[in-house]
Structure formats: C-alpha cells, structure tokens
Design a protein that fits this description.
The complex is a heterodimer of chains A (373) and B (403). Chain A is α/β, with parallel strands linked by helices and 373 residues long. Chain A has 11 helices and 14 strands. The radius of gyration of chain B is 24 Å and the shape is globular. Chain B has a domain of 260 residues: ABC transporter involved in vitamin B12 uptake, BtuC (Orthogonal Bundle). The chains are: A alpha/beta (373), B mainly alpha (403). At the A-B interface, helix 1, strand 2 and helix 3 of A face helix 3, helix 5, helix 8 and helix 14 of B. Chain A: It is a lipid-anchor.
C-alpha cells in the first residue's frame, strides 16, 4: 500500500515536471516560429532570388569522421542543410565508418535516386570518380580534392567537380597578424596529420610570419612547421583534444604565445592550452567565435574555409542545370576562403587592420604569391 | 593474475567434447537469441524517442492534455511507423536484394577472420586486443606487394596474401614472444602494439614509394587487378576463404596436438607446464596464428574490395572482432555466425541510414547491447556458481534471476 502510494507520488511529480518542460518548450517553439517565419517570408517573396527545386535530391557521403566532427565534414554538411533551406531540395546522407564502406555508401545514394552527390574528403577520391563514371546523369562534387594529371589538366569526367580551397592565402594573413601581435617573438602551429590539406594552412601561416620579418626587420620565430623540410608538429589524430593540448603546451613552454592549431576537433585542445596559459589562439575552418564560442575571448581571428558555401553552390548549379566539371578553388578573391572578424579582445589597431586589408588586396592582385618556397 | 577472470570463464561449457549433443547447445543459443531480441527492442525504443513526429505528438499531448486520446493514438501510430521503417530498411539493406546480400557477406568476411583470431587466443587463455594492429600491418604489407610488384595474375595474389598473413603473424607472434619470455601481459602489449602499428603505417605512408603518383596525401595506390581476389557472381573469392579459415581453426582446436596443448594452457598454464608442455611455444604459436587470421581479415578488405591503404583502412575491425568472438563463444562455428550477424547489421545499418534516415550510431548501440546482454547472463551465472561452491546451497534462485 505504502509502496503504491510512493510510486503514484513519483509518477505525479514526474508528470508535473514533464508538463512544465513541455509547456516551456512549446512556448519557445511558438516564439521561434513566429520570429523566424517573418524574415523568411520577406526574403523569399519580394526578391524571389532563389529558385526552388522540390524534385531535386541532393545527397552527401561523409568520410570516417562523421558529420558531427565539428570540422570539415560538419561544415560541408552545413552546405547541404543550407541548400535544403534555401532551394527547397530533398536530401539524404550517409556517414562512413571506415574506408571500405565508401564505395557502398556512394552506391546507396545512387540507389536512393539522388540527383547530386557530394563526397567529403580526399579519401573518397577513387570511389567518387568510379561512381561518377558509372552514373553520368548524377552530378558529383568532392570536397578537398581535384583531379589533375601531371600537366595540371583537369581529368574529372563532365559530371564531377572538385572543390578545393587555397587556405594558404588567409593563413598568410593570420601569420602576419600573429607576428605583429606576439609579445614573446615566438608563435606556434601544429597539424593533425602531415597531409597537404592541413599543411597548406601551416605553410601559409609561416610564410606570413616570414613576410612580417622581412618587412619590419624583426625575428619572429615559428614553431611547429619548417617550410624547408615540410615537416613539423602533428597530433597524428584529428579526434583527441588531449593530444592537441599536449602539443600546444609543448609549443607554449618553448615560448610561443600565439597558437594556430590545424587539427580539427583535436585543435580545440590547443585552444584550451592557450586559454590556460594566457596565450592567444587562431582557429581554422570556421569562425571560432561561432563554432567554438567558449574560446572566443582568446581568439585573434580565424582562417575560414568556405566549404559550406562551395558545397551549396555545387548543389544549386546541379539543380539549375549549370553544373560544370571545372574545379572550384576557394580564394580570397572569390571569398571561398577568408579571415574571420577579429576576436572581441584581440585589440587590433587600425594601422595593423589596414595593413592586413592591404596584404589581402596584394594577394588577390598576385603581387604576393602564397605557396611553397 | 588470479583476480582477473580468465577468458575461459566467458566461454560457457561448450567443452565436454565427449558427449556433445545438440541439447547442450540449446541454452547458449537461447541466451544469444534472447540477447539479440532484447537489443533490438532497446533499439526500437531509441528509434521511437528520436523520431520527430513522435516527439511533436508528445509535446502536443503535454500541451493539450484534454485531447489525450488523440495524441496518444498519434504517438502509438508514429512510433509503430518509425520502428517499422527503420527495421524494414535494416532487413532490406542486409538481405533484401542481391547487392544487399553481397554487401553483408563482404562485410562479414573480415569480421569472421579477425574474430577467429581473437577466438583462438581466447581458447589459450589470452585476451587478444591486438587484432586491430595485426590487421593494419597486414593491410600495409598486402597492399604494398599488391601495388608495387608487377607479377603474373595468380602468383601476385598469392604473394600479396602471403605478405599480409606474414606481417600479421609477425605482429601477433611478437606478443606471444613477449609474454613467453618476459611475462608481459598480452592485454598491455596488444593495446600498445595497436598504437605502434598505426604509427608504423603512418611512417610508411609518408614515404614516396607508398604514395600515389603526384600526390602527398597519406594514401597508397589501390592494389593492381592481378593482386585482387577474383570475383564470381559478384562475390570475391576471399569470402569462401573465410569459411575455410574457420574450418582450419576448428581442426586446429579440436583435432591437432597444438589445439590440445593450447586448450590445456588456456585451462591451466602451470599444470600444462608440469605436464611437460612448452607454454613458450604455445603462446608464440597461438598469437602468431591469431595475427595471421587478422592479416587475412586485412586481405579481405584490401585485396577483396580493392582498397587503397590508409591508416584507417581496416576501420575498427580489430575491436569488432572481439565482440564477434565473444558473441560466438570463441568457437569457430559461433564466430562465423556472429560475423554474419554483425556483417548483416553493418550492411543493414547503411540501408537504415540511406532510406530511413536513422543515425548510424544506432547499429553500434545495438551491437554493443547484444554483447552486453550475452555477457551479462554469463557473468551472473558465474557469480552464481562461485556462490554455490562457497555455500553449497542450491542455486535455484540465481538461475531464476538469470532467466
């Protein structure tokens, strides 16, 4: 009897608690829809800028990081989500657990009747081109890879577009900024793996620091990347924040007061180390003040790689029938890569800000060439 | 040492080989099927609570308790729909069509091979956590022979397989040698060697000779066609090889002198040594065989599916193999069946993801739950047995608790 009463009491309490939650959620949801629906209506009806393709199915296959990697899979996935929101396309997606599943996963998207398939990462390059050759009616895009032969000619079939990003350019600006801001005269960077899509950031960063030294007669040192040897500090892992933290602490103990981690989620450990030791951080891929806002206070800026924009554009082109196999290369010029707004505490003076803008223009003009020495 | 449960304890009494009739298997089969059913039930619950329509209906129900019946009806309807969609997609993706079946078998083959490697080590009383590293070095060796040397068709394939097996056997044998000579615990050494294997692979992948022409990415070229398994009716011939491997493991365990010795060492190493058996030989041999089987698993992936070698090429096969061996009760037949089940779940998981939008993690949860439910009754039963021995009381209650 006593037991029954107790259970009943617990049940009532639980019901009350759930009701309370439910109501609040519901209210919030109501407000959200009200506030958010208004601007969408305004933007879509009068301008009517974006065509809608309700019969078009856009699909995506991740690499083994999965779509929740807070890094390049996730940013690319945002492109798909945005395409659904902006163009009203249908979507489907598959996450890969290991490379032996890539071919199956792409095929499963073909079987689902997808009109465009975006694959994420160079590991899928072979399976993507194989599937593209087999299915000429489907438009394919691949993030972080382009098909070039020895002479630099595009070898992709007509329905396959490579999406690459010259992240060296904004990293150059970040390197210049870091060299200007360092107190200790030492800045540090580290990567996830020694692969081109990672080291292009580190190399651009180091080149920016070198450029600052040449211009200003200073001697700011870069730890973690050697431009001559093409080698440096790596976590050998994109997942483990602990490893990122260890590598960053090592760099800080050697005097670095600005850390530039290029290791996806593992890089968050680098920002944590910077925060713990009163150093600055520069984030990559996305604006860190948005994607890793807990570290916004210690960020000078972020090097943004506009994978979401490129992916969405690829889908839109495919839907509109204007798709081409011309590889896309994100640059400062076309806005495919950029430097994020400076962090709230970065305290960049107007002179430096103007210099950065000027350098950006020079890179766009080709006066400064960012790339291998 | 004495405190840790031996692997034999997890393997239930399958051993009275003298009178092994079908009825002695029934409890094991029943427990396993029960575990699978339980795991699928929990999975169904997860599908329901993550279904948007169900969540919306539930919110409405709480917001408007007056229309309780309507919304409760909605919840039931949407839940049923969500579960039906998910599980029918699972079945279709696993066995629903020719390509689906093919996918299931392709994914089962490496799991079976690596699972056999873990199982045979279990029987010798060794926890082989190192199938991952053994498979990884095997993949590198098989891949290297596959894409570097230009040999005639049949010979090239044999050479590539041999390289994969040898590398895996070496990596596994190392563990046995360390245990036999220095007493280093195999759990520690296998886990450490997994990391070493990954870094060894990364080291070689950074070399020009292991990279694709005109590329600095850490990925090798795919193996040449002459080094890949021939395909018959859509299935590559590595798959029957996995069944042959299972037969070989059965023969070693049940019919060979080595098998007798390794089971004896597994049951009691000290007694075996007193009886004149060389534990050194047994440890090295069994770990080398385990590594060889993991290397075979890597061949299934690299040579069967034409994969380029990267540091992730074998996925998590080495760890899945442990669950496969556990579910298969460390017997060859059980491992084959468990490997087929996990292969089917993996292939079906792709179907669920692609056509029902169910997150891929659900399959991993179901796999983990199956093993948990399989392991839990065994643990409970063991606990009961110890108690029985101590108190000499009938264990009717504990048996009841297990059921």
């Amino acid at each position: 009897m006593k037991k029954t009463a107790r259970i009943a009491a617990v049940g009532v309490i639980a019901a009350l608690a759930l009701t309370a939650c439910g109501d609040r959620e519901d209210d919030k949801k109501g407000d959200d829809t009200k506030s958010s629906s208004a601007p969408t209506d305004v933007s879509s009806s009068p301008t009517d800028a974006l065509d809608q393709y309700p019969d078009f199915k856009a699909c995506m296959v991740s690499d083994s990081g999965g779509f929740d990697d807070k890094s390049f899979n996730q940013t690319s996935h945002d492109g798909l989500t945005n395409a659904v929101a902006d163009y009203g396309v249908q979507s489907a997606e598959v996450e890969s657990n290991d490379p032996s599943q890539f071919a199956d996963n792409i095929q499963s998207m073909v079987d689902e009747g997808c009109n465009s398939i975006t694959t994420v990462g160079f590991l899928l390059a072979d399976d993507t081109i194989a599937s593209a050759t087999e299915n000429p009616d489907i438009d394919y895009s691949i993030v972080d890879f382009a098909y070039f032969d020895d002479k630099g000619n595009n070898t992709a079939p007509a329905n396959l577009k490579g999406l690459t990003f010259n992240t060296g350019q904004p990293s150059f600006l970040a390197g210049y900024l870091a060299a200007a801001k360092t107190q200790s005269g030492v800045v540090g960077t580290f990567g996830g793996l020694n692969i081109p899509t990672v080291t292009i950031f580190m190399d651009g960063f180091a080149q920016g620091v070198d450029y600052y030294n040449e211009e200003n007669g200073t001697d700011v040192a870069v730890l973690g990347w050697d431009r001559e040897k093409k080698d440096g500090s790596f976590t050998e892992d994109f997942e483990s924040t602990t490893k990122g933290q260890n590598v960053a602490e090592e760099l800080i103990s050697q005097g670095a007061d600005i850390i530039f981690p290029v290791a996806g989620p593992a890089g968050l450990g680098g920002l944590q180390a910077a925060k713990d030791n009163g150093a600055w951080g520069i984030w990559v891929d996305t604006d860190g003040c948005v994607s890793a806002s807990e570290y916004c206070d210690i960020l000078l800026t972020s090097v943004m790689k506009g994978m979401d924009v490129a992916v969405e554009q690829g889908i839109a082109d495919a839907a509109a029938g204007t798709f081409s196999n011309e590889p896309y290369s994100g640059t400062l010029e076309n806005g495919g890569v950029d430097l994020a707004p400076f962090g709230p505490n970065a305290d960049i003076d107007d002179d430096l800000s103007a210099t950065i803008d000027d350098l950006k223009q020079q890179i766009i003009d080709g006066t400064i060439e960012v790339g291998a020495p | 040492m004495a405190m840790s449960p031996t692997p034999e304890a997890i393997v239930p009494d399958t051993e009275p080989a003298a009178k092994r009739d079908v009825s002695s298997w029934l409890p094991t089969v029943r427990d396993t099927l029960l575990a699978i059913a339980l795991a699928l039930t929990v999975g169904a619950f997860l599908v329901i609570v993550s279904d948007e329509q169900v969540i919306d209906a539930f919110k409405d129900l709480i917001a408007y308790p007056g229309s309780f019946l309507i919304y409760a009806g909605d919840i039931v309807k949407y839940s049923a729909e969500a579960v039906w969609d998910a599980y029918s997609a699972l079945v279709r993706g696993a066995v629903g069509s020719g390509p689906a079946l093919q996918r299931t078998l392709e994914r089962s083959a490496p799991l079976i091979c690596a699972g056999l490697g873990v199982a045979i080590a279990f029987r010798a009383g060794l926890f082989n956590i190192g199938a991952q590293g053994q498979a990884l070095v095997g993949a590198l060796a098989a891949g290297y022979v596959g894409f570097t040397y230009d040999l005639p068709a049949g010979i090239h394939l044999v050479a590539a397989i041999a390289a994969g097996l040898a590398a895996g056997a070496f990596w596994g044998g190392l563990v046995g040698w360390l245990k036999a000579t220095s007493g280093a615990h195999e759990v520690i050494t296998t886990i450490m060697l997994n990391n070493v294997a990954r870094f060894v692979v990364l080291y070689f992948l950074a070399k020009e000779a292991f990279q694709k022409h005109n590329s600095d990415n850490l990925i090798t070229p795919p193996p040449m066609d002459s080094a890949t398994f021939p395909t018959v009716g859509g299935l590559h011939l590595g798959i029957p090889l996995a069944v042959v491997a299972a037969g070989a493991v059965w023969w070693i365990l049940d019919r060979s002198k080595l098998g007798f010795e390794l089971r004896a060492v597994g049951a009691n190493p000290d007694a075996s040594r007193t009886a004149g058996m060389s534990t050194t030989k047994v440890y090295i041999m069994v770990m080398a065989i385990a590594g060889l089987l993991s290397g075979l698993a890597a061949c299934m992936t690299v040579l069967g599916l034409h994969q380029s070698v990267t540091d992730q090429v074998v996925g998590s096969v080495g760890f899945d193999a442990i669950t496969v061996a556990l579910l298969g009760r460390a017997t060859p037949l059980g491992t084959v069946l468990a490997g087929l089940l996990f292969g089917a779940l993996s292939a079906g998981g792709l179907g669920m993801q692609a056509s029902a939008g169910v997150p891929p993690e659900l399959i991993q949860v179901i796999q983990a739950l199956i093993v948990l439910f399989v392991a839990a009754p065994a643990l409970v039963r063991n606990f009961g047995r110890i108690k029985r021995r101590r108190t000499k009381k009938s264990s009717v209650e504990t048996e009841g608790a297990v059921a």
